[in-house]
């Protein structure tokens, strides 16, 4: 495979890593989450990807759930629906909840509840 032609100036510049900077926006043990949209923006990821990652970490116990990620009233509604319908599937929960509650919010609260359930 041929390497592209570079000038002497370009060769003297340090190469930038394509790896995202994992220190921005999320601190796993310092628990410093700046917000779902902000983390996604900083890391160049879709918001749903970041929410899925955070939810997985919460469910595994590697990250503590941050109440500010989901509005308190929405948390209460999601918890009530989970008590009625269970934690196994998200779609029945989404269908039972008001339309302003997103799958992302449901996923985060369900992750916390699943973690609590595992430790009872």
Key attributes of the depicted protein:
single chain, 120 residues, mainly alpha, 6 helices, 0% strand, globular
Global Rg:
20 Å
Structural class: mainly alpha
The backbone outline, from C-alpha atoms, is globular
**Low-confidence residue ranges:** 17-34
3D structure, described in words:
With 120 residues, the protein is mainly alpha-helical. The protein has one domain. The protein has helices at residues 8-12, 36-43, 47-60, 72-85, 91-96, 103-118. The termini are far apart. The model is unreliable at 17-34 (pLDDT under 50).
Helix-strand layout with pairing:
Blueprint: H1 8-12, H2 36-43, H3 47-60, H4 72-85, H5 91-96, H6 103-118
Helix pairs in contact: 2-3, 3-6, 4-6
Give a short summary of the structure.
By secondary structure, the protein is mainly α. It has helices at residues 8-12, 36-43, 47-60, 72-85, 91-96, 103-118. It has one domain.
């Amino acid at each position: 495979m041929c390497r592209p032609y570079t000038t002497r100036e370009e060769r003297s510049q340090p190469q930038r890593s394509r790896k995202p900077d994992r220190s921005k926006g999320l601190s796993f043990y310092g628990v410093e989450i700046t917000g779902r949209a902000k983390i996604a923006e900083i890391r160049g990821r879709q918001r749903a990807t970041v929410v899925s990652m955070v939810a997985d970490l919460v469910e595994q116990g590697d990250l503590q759930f941050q109440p500010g990620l989901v509005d308190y009233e929405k948390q209460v509604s999601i918890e009530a629906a989970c008590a009625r319908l269970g934690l196994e599937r998200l779609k029945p929960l989404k269908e039972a909840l008001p339309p302003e509650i997103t799958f992302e919010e449901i996923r985060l609260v369900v992750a916390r509840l699943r973690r609590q359930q595992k430790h009872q």
